[in-house]
Amino acid sequence: MDSPSEVHMPGVGVAPADWHLRVLGRFALYRGTTEITLGAGGRRLLAYVAVNDGSVGRDGAAAALWPAASSDRAGGNLRAVVHRGRRLVGDLLISDRSHLALHPRLTVDLWECTALAGSAADGLSPAEEHRLVTAGDLLPGQQEDWILMARERFLLRRVHALELICRLRTGEDRPAEAVAAGIAAARLDPFRVSVHQALIAAHLRGGDIAAALRLYRCFRSRMSEELHREASVTPRRQRRDVRGRR
């Protein structure tokens, strides 16, 4: 796993090696097998730093976490959350006057899965592929702008990696693993043509012609419905625009 961007700050102690932050599927902070309870502000702050590669500027964090507040109020909120958080997690959260960072020895599931996605072309173990296939969404149900953008970045990385795994395993005559990766990619991005092409090829390589045909027909029907819906909506929008200009 790649470490987050390092920030050199004075007074940084050594964090225990058995802390783990989870942001895929749900938020959870563990020390060993014990889940640590944090307030809503602390959870949002740790998650924000985590989805930004482990290091952020204070001003940017305050603006993102409290977008409706004035800069002074947002900065005060951030200082309060950092103070409370450090009492609970110590040097897992590193801070100075301008930056915040997560300790490099903290493990984060998002970083681990992102690293796996980036290594897909080099070959992953079956356990690593399974982890990428079954990874949860990033903070599901949360709709803040910074979460939505981070969620989309992670989704695209997973889709690209899973599609690549599907094609690689098909070429290696390992259709079961290829199909598992392809199905996961198609669930994440049901309208990506290249993913469905890869999955159909995997089914055919495994001799499952019926599954390949079902997938082809389902995808064709879905795309036809989507294109028809867009075609019917666009003229209505144009008519409204024309009427609005009269």
Report on the architecture of this protein.
This protein starts with 18 loop residues before the first strand and ends with a helix. β2 and β3 form a beta hairpin. It is elongated, with a radius of gyration of 22 Å. By secondary structure, the protein is an alpha+beta fold. The protein has a four-stranded mixed β-sheet. A three-stranded antiparallel β-sheet has the order 4-6-5. The longest helix has 37 residues. The chain is 61% helix and 9% strand. The N terminus is likely disordered. α6 packs antiparallel against α7 and α6 runs parallel beside α8. It contains nine helices and seven strands; from the N terminus they run βββαβααβββαααααα.
Report the portion of residues in β strands: 5-15%
Shape: elongated
Structural class: alpha+beta
Low-confidence stretches: 1-14
What is the multimeric organization of the chains shown? single chain
Strand line-up across the major sheet = 3-2-1-7
Order of helices and strands: EEEHEHHEEEHHHHHH
Instruction: Give the radius of gyration.
Output: 22 Å
**Helix share, percent:** 55-70%
Largest sheet entry: 4 strands, mixed
Rounded mean pLDDT is 87
End-to-end distance? 60 Å
Number of E strands:
7
Number of helices: 9
Secondary-structure topology with pairs:
Elements: E1 19-22, E2 28-31, E3 34-36, H1 40-51, E4 55-57, H2 58-65, H3 71-89, E5 93-95, E6 99-102, E7 107-108, H4 109-118, H5 126-134, H6 145-171, H7 175-188, H8 193-205, H9 209-245
Parallel strand pairs: 1-7
Antiparallel strand pairs: 1-2, 2-3, 4-6, 5-6
